[in-house]
Fold this protein.
Amino acid sequence: MDLLTQGLLGSAMAQSGAQKKEVRLATGIGFFSGLLADADILIQSSNDPLLNIEFHRHFTHSIFFVPFGALIAALLLWPFVRKRLAFRRIYLFAFLGYLFSGVLDAFTSYGTHILWPLDESRIAFNIISVVDPVFTTILLFAVLYAFIKHTKIAARIGLMLAVLYLTFGWTQLQRAETVAQTLASERGHVIENLLVKPTLANLVLWRSIYQVDGRLYVDAIRVGLFSEPHVYEGESIEKFVLERDMAGLSETSVLAKDISRFMNFSAGLVAVQPEHPNVLIDVRYSNLPTTVAPLWAIEMDRENPEEHATYVLFRDASKETREKFLSLLFGRVDE
């Protein structure tokens, strides 16, 4: 998730294991340790544009890396707090702060190598957005109260409420998946692959992507708290097939390997942008849940297969897009 939430979770975890006189120090140690897993964002290469997305949320987010990540955090912080805490206590708070960094990210839709090196796949449970203000606020109030009152009870209550919120997200996901399956059945489609994920900053509006006969269908599903679910039918696009769409491309070429890396990152849900045949998009993400307009993609130079693909971003912060999204979120769109 976002850095603030990662840090707050780390603080709450560390506070929950602290004695009264240690709570404030544990807050800082836990916050720093909760952020440290995301240091993999610094792994970049000017010669390989895909290296960053390949290694972000990689080994530093694995549950098997937690003891080592906590040790790094403790060693970095030891010079600053060694006169106030024994190293074993610093390590304990760093361990608690680092413990769920990867797990929390796995609850989002981005994908995390939480079981590396035993499993190289990106795991995503899709029960919360990468940014969720409600979840963040729960942790923020718990951490602040614990810090001010020197009490770990507030942190533990905050953690329990956060777990309840994630459980609610899982329930919402099940409801949205049921609607998506019903929609496909009404269309006469037999789903081959289904992904349902929350849209930005909420657990009400969901994006559904499913595959049928080599085509990807995108729809928005509003799962209200006190109303029946509603579907906003969206667009569809032909799924990318390497042998067909890049006929003649050598499997050993740099471009072919980059395409494979991008497909792995995107859970295989990729397509060629119709108006730009050299652009391969990640269909999972869009500014609006009913469209296939991408948030990111790779640009392929078919004439130079030994050159790396270029990673490109498509940000649409226009007023029109924001208003359309809010209309879908609050159920103000009639279709």
Summary: The chain has a mean pLDDT of 96.
